[in-house]
Amino acid sequence: MTFALVVAADEGGGIGKNGELPWRLPGDLAFFRRQTTATLDQKKRNAVIMGRRTWESVPDRFRPLPSRLNVVVTHDPNYDTAGKAIVATSLEDALSRARAAPDIETLFIIGGGVLYRDALAHPACQTVYLTRIEGHRDCDAFFPPLEASFVLAEASARHEENGVGYVFQRWERERFTPASASGSTTAEAARSQSTRRGPLSP
Ligand SMILES: NC(=O)c1ccc[n+]([C@@H]2O[C@H](COP(=O)([O-])OP(=O)(O)OC[C@H]3O[C@@H](n4cnc5c(N)ncnc54)[C@H](OP(=O)(O)O)[C@@H]3O)[C@@H](O)[C@H]2O)c1
Hints:
Blueprint: E1 3-10, E2 14-16, H1 26-37, E3 45-51, H2 52-57, E4 68-73, E5 86-88, H3 91-100, E6 104-109, H4 113-120, E7 125-133, E8 141-142, E9 150-155, E10 159-161, E11 164-173, H5 186-193
Bound molecules: NADP nicotinamide-adenine-dinucleotide phosphate (NAP).
């Protein structure tokens, strides 16, 4: 079972500062909520997997993120989420706990910088939903550059909110499968399938 990443990063890869997002973009938050919540099968839900610091950055009244299985990754097996999330002690542990739930459709890694690094290096990482924020902000948490194996499958029109310009992008990891022998790759297949979860828009 592959998984996807969802991230908003500026042109320097900046994603956070002092445990918070460096921008206020309601359109991006709406995209995040829809992308991570929507399922093709109405009887299923998705899992959102996050690092401990990202979990703590979500105000208590908004935890857990609703209608999704919340998984928090920490080295502390006794970490207390007040029963609001599953605790996992590694990325692999998080993936297997989420996969073990019978009603999970898609696994999303939702940050932050430490967990993104691990996730991008994992062979099951297939899709990156990247909100590319124009310019450079003052950040202390970062999203690493995507390897060349990721190809841009789709991009939205430019949006602007609060003076901040941004574009929604979908990147797919190109793999050489038997289909590639006949000239098509998983990325091309993904491009032709287009957006099964709806358009890349707020
Ligand atoms: N722009 C975006 O899309 C976006 C998305 C999410 C978060 N953010 C921002 O990013 C910042 C937080 O990111 P961050 O890099 O500081 O922290 P993070 O990745 O959210 O959390 C780091 C912590 O998670 C645990 N962890 C991560 N990977 C692990 C692994 N493989 N195995 C075991 N434990 C692991 C460790 O917890 P322990 O120390 O407890 O062991 C680690 O200290 C915040 O500013 C937040 O607002 C931005």
